[in-house]
């Protein structure tokens, strides 16, 4: 496992992290406590020192699992969690979750579930349209001063919002969906991160599983799997996206890699920290191996030819999901 600094002033983390959304029941289907614990411990033992979660994953269950399973090993990993992503019955953001008073309430609840006295990286999950980002960043800055949070982050924000936030307090990391299938951050956000010394964390780095090498169609998604409502998994789109993933898999096989390893190695090469999630310990080990993969110029060119920006069919989220994103 290789390690890198997250942003110009942030912590040292493994080149590849672990996204713990998958460990909460009900998001990607059922997962037992035993299986979730085994997967989480395997990640830590494999040298993955960057664990990412959020208070809304399983309504706090992901945070609680981390608190129980990794209790006594707190000094072995960098812990990131998020607040402000709660949605109403229509899938739209609940207003007011960026208010300073809410930020203070949310961190205390997360710390209690995580069984720790501090979070290393605390993200605003989605920009609150009713609260200026300057006010939210002011509250995060106060939490840093109080020692409850070490670094502040933002998720799914525009380059313009990032610049406004950094004027109040240094943003250590921005987390946005980024993969071979989702290339939008390359236009403005990634250049802004480089300019401002902000680290970039790529969530859904395997295209929500499409680049994992196992999904062949909608029939393989469990009934409770939220991807059933995602445009990229709808009839027609999913066939095109699976075919696209198959072409990447062929290229990966030529280089003795899995499609997931190639996709993750590509993201690491871009200077980002991908945080793939999985419910299976064996997948954790396979993903971790991507941190040691070196991609030469010829291979990078072939990847670009196979999967140029905009190649994936369908938006990355439905109408409500996209309405919650600052663009």
UniProtKB/TrEMBL annotation:
Residues 16-306 form the NADP-dependent oxidoreductase domain. Keywords: Oxidoreductase. One of its GO terms (cellular component) is cytoplasm. Pfam families: Aldo_ket_red. GO terms for molecular function: oxidoreductase activity. PANTHER family: AFLATOXIN B1 ALDEHYDE REDUCTASE, ALDO-KETO REDUCTASE YAKC [NADP(+)]. This is Aldo/keto reductase.
């Amino acid at each position: 496992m290789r390690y890198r600094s997250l942003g110009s002033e942030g912590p040292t983390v493994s080149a590849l992290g672990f996204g713990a959304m998958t460990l909460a029941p009900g998001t990607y289907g059922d997962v037992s406590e035993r299986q979730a614990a085994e997967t989480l411990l395997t990640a830590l033992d494999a040298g993955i020192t960057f664990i990412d979660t959020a208070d809304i994953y399983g309504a706090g269950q992901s945070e609680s699992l981390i608190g129980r399973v990794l209790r006594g090993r707190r000094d072995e990993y960098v812990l990131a969690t998020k607040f402000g992503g709660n949605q109403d019955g229509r899938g739209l953001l609940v207003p007011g979750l960026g208010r300073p008073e809410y930020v203070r309430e949310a961190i205390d609840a997360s710390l209690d579930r995580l069984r720790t006295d501090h979070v290393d990286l605390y993200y605003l999950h989605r920009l609150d349209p009713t609260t200026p980002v300057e006010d939210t960043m002011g509250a995060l800055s106060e939490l840093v001063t109080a020692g409850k949070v070490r670094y502040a982050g933002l998720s799914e924000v525009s380059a313009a919002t990032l610049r406004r936030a950094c004027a109040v307090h240094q943003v250590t990391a921005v987390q946005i969906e980024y993969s071979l299938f989702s290339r939008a951050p390359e236009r403005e956000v990634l250049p802004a991160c480089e300019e401002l010394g902000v680290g970039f964390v790529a969530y859904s780095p395997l295209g929500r599983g499409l680049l994992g090498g196992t999904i062949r169609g909608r029939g393989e998604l469990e009934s409770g799997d939220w991807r059933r409502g995602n445009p990229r998994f709808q009839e027609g789109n999913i066939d095109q996206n699976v075919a696209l993933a198959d072409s990447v898999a062929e290229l990966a096989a030529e280089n003795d890699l899995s499609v997931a390893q190639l996709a993750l190695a590509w993201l690491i090469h871009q200077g980002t920290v991908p945080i793939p999630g999985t419910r299976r310990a064996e997948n954790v080990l396979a993903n971790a191996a991507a941190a040691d993969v070196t991609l030469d110029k010829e291979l990078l060119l072939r990847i670009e030819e196979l999967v140029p920006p905009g190649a994936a069919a369908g938006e990355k989220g439905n109408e409500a999901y996209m309405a919650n994103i600052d663009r």
